[in-house]
Amino acid sequence: MHTMKFTAIIAMAPSRALGTSSNGVNRKRLKRMPGFIAKHRKSLFILSLFILLFWLVTLQVKNGRLTFMEKPVLAISGFFERIISWPFNTVVSIGEGYILLVNTQQENQRFRSENERLQLENGVMNELQHENERLRDALEFKRTYPPPAVMAQVIGKQSSPVSSTVTLNKGSDHGIRKDMAVITAQGVVGKVQAVLPGTAKVLLLTDPGSTIAVRVMRNREEGLLEGKLVNCSLKYISYYADIQEGDVLVTSGLDDIYPKGLAVASVVKVSKHEANPFQTVVAEPAVGLSRLEEALVLLK
User: 228 in helix, strand or coil?
Assistant: First the structure.
């Protein structure tokens, strides 16, 4: 009998110990609960408020009409809905803006490429138009000017502190010889200095080695025009000669190179000094030599 009681007591001991252990765990969990609630108090409050508002709205929707409680409730719930949906809407808006920006940049690049292509084509067309106008003027001048002439293109330019020349794409094979006059419809360019079968070197009237017999168109005063690289100087003009700025100088024909009456230069500056018996006269060439592209060589 005593043995059975002892056995029962022993059997009950683990159960009591197990119950005691479970109760201790539960008590620890309960002790932790207030700390969790305190830590997440704000989040739990907002969640509870949102659930309460949703519940109130659900209860008060009747016959499709709003009760006096629904308006403030819907306003508050809408506020929280905007807060929740704002990040998503922001991301969507940024994505749409980025796609629009990329498409705009691609469109702008296409427009820029098209604009550059049109500008290039326009530049080529303008250049061809200007070239046609120059050639037409040269051909018209060649037809109206009596001496036979050969038209040539400038294929090279040489300029240094002591020389100013150009190279033409035609030479002795085309009848060009040394000391032949080179002109355009605007006036004198210079004279042929050296000749090869396919090219000719032209000494420009601005070269220091160039001298041309000229006269003033207005009063027939004569002188020698000498090259000064950039412009020209009219030499041996008497102190008392009537020379004015704007006077046009033409070839006199006395040097046996240039026919009489071709435009050569215009006077741009006149100065006198009592100690000098001659005037200092500066003249600018009639032909824009820096822009020269074609010329006529007068055949003798």
Answer: coil
d(CA 233, CA 243): 13
Residue 258 and residue 234: Cα distance in Å, rounded?
17
Instruction: Give CA 12 to chain center in angstroms.
Output: 98
Distance, CA of 224 to CA of 259 (rounded, Å): 15
Which residue ranges in the chain fall short of pLDDT 70?
1-43, 45, 49-50, 52-89, 91-92, 95-96, 98, 116-118, 120-132, 134-146
Q: pLDDT tens across 153-203, in order? A: 999 998 888 889 999 999 999 999 999 999 998 999 999 999 999 999 999
Cα 180 to Cα 218: distance, rounded to the nearest angstrom = 27
Q: Give me the phi and psi of 280, to 5 degrees please.
A: -100, 115
Q: What is the pLDDT of residues 58-83, one digit of tens each?
A: 555 544 554 545 555 555 556 656 66
- The closest alpha carbon to 184, from 153, 209, 157, 160, belongs to 153
The distance in angstroms from the start CA to the end CA of the chain is 161
Quick one: which H or E segment has residue 147?
A: none
Domains along the chain?
Answer: 149-298 (2.40.10.340)
With beta carbons less than 8 A apart as the criterion, state whether 157 and 166 touch: yes
What is the pTM assigned to this prediction? 0.56
